Amino acid sequence: MDTIIITTISSPWLLCFLALVFSHGLVQLQASHHVYRNLQTSENTPPNQPYRTSYHFQPPQNWINGILNRPMVYKGLYHLFYQYNPKGAVWGNIVWAHSTSKDLVNWTPHDPAIFPSQESDINGCWSGSATILPNGKPVILYTGINPQNQQVQNYAEPKNLSDPFLREWVKLPHNPVMAPTQANQINASSFRDPTTAWLGPDKRWRVIIGSKKNRRGLAILYRSKDFVYWVKAKHPLHSGKGTGMWECPDFFPVSVDGQVGVATSVIDNKVKHVLKYSLDDTKHDYYTIGTYNFALDKYIPDKGFVDSYSGLRYDYGKFYASKTFFDDIKNRRILWGWVNESSSVNDDIKKGWSGVQAIPRTIWLDKYGKQLIQWPIPEIEKLRLNMVNLSNKLLKGGSKLQISNVQALQADVEVSFKVSGFEKAEKLDPSWTDPQMLCSRKGASVKGGLGPFGLYVLASKGLEEYTAVFFRIFKSNEKYVVLMCSDQSRSSLNEDNDKTTYGAFLNVDPVYETLSLRTLIDHSIVESFGGKGKACITARVYPTLAIGYGANLFAFNNGNQDVQITSLKAWNMKKAMIY
């Protein structure tokens, strides 16, 4: 086939389109790889890089923003597509960068999969998702920005299905396949991020796209018989009053019978459904759990779940624009999320990069159906070295314990605490409903009854700098409430950084359960999982003293009551092979 580039709508284009109505043909795009090839090395990264991660995914330099482009599995390889600026460390010039992996830990880069080349995406190739069709062919639906700066949805598929690396993609010549019009009354500036599609029992495909109408967030629903021609439904799958724009929606089933993942098109009485959206106003990811009524094509959240800023979140720190995918190799659902910087734009430009990906997490429904559980994929444990093992250590009130023989810059730490003396728990004021505000008010340096106790990570020897991840226990009526905090207020002497403190209430009964904490430390990122994955908090920090050999790790207790460390295990982490 001759190479064709479509850049304008003209009479020849219309003739081509009419022919393609019957053929569903694809136009081979000019590869343009002489423009986009190896742009990850277009600028030199400064040599002194104390904040570059070692086992979190990030390209050698420049800006990334998120797993907006859904990962997938094809011919035994994991494919990661992500938004990338090949020309600098700030947002702009966005293409779909592409890497592959056999284990979700070590990654090999390829040329960008999708880049502006058609009228329907000439001003930008934004986010989207991949869907594997029943014949095994992957298809990508993605948001493009047209010459009128409208957000429209486009179709692309691999040029060569025999290539397991899927190194070249082609687009429909009559893109877009979904677009705002006067008739459908879609907001042309708020119509983006198509999900992975699901196939209904009626053999029609469905996909949702994030949008808003005034202040109401929308999951706009489209249907298709052939994945090429799409028809907008009369009503959205779901909407939320007063929430603003719903970015990067995600809709998927979870099993009610344990941790096994299920494919996206499964609809039966053995699953619940999850609707997740990223709120543009708050830059946080929220979700509800509920029922998908296929007959009505409506999603109904279960009682107790709310579409609001106070709803459940995947992560209560820096974690946004996340997507899940079903891993049919290991029958699990995996969650990816983007972790942006807390440093200033000027500092990002100086270091030559911005943004990393969180460690992939396995995600499943808890046994009561009230929330999702998240845990780092077990593959990451292959990087563990030289375990330090402590048990039954008493941590007296006002004390700290240095954890030696651990590379504190690059570590995986699991610790469990046993608490007693509950009569010393501070009373929870009924007005203390915002965990982040409460953690800010009662940080790691504020003494309490039961807590704060936990870990000082990326800490300088004299504690001039540290990030504290900890628990604090309150009394509320006849029960106890556990607060989990990640306190960045003293993480760096550099005052140009965002040092916001994060917090979450943890659904654990400390009377009958030990309090567990797992923290992944990687130079400038701290990912923490409380209560075996019931609450997650991710932070970005940039110490000036606690770098290199100046970084330390401590367990601490700043409460009045002693606590018992029942178990503490810490590992050095090897560097992953990420190119």
From TrEMBL:
It comes from the Eukaryota. One of its GO terms (biological process) is carbohydrate metabolic process. Residues 56-376 form the Glycosyl hydrolase family 32 N-terminal domain. Belongs to the glycosyl hydrolase 32 family. Keywords: Glycosidase, Hydrolase, Signal, Vacuole. Residues 1-23 form the signal peptide. The keyword Protease does not apply. Its main location: other. It catalyses: Hydrolysis of terminal non-reducing beta-D-fructofuranoside residues in beta-D-fructofuranosides. It comes from Cannabis sativa (Hemp). One of its GO terms (cellular component) is vacuole. This is Beta-fructofuranosidase. It is found in: Vacuole. Coiled coil: none annotated. It holds the Pfam family Glyco_hydro_32C. GO terms for molecular function: beta-fructofuranosidase activity. Residues 379-572 form the Glycosyl hydrolase family 32 C-terminal domain.
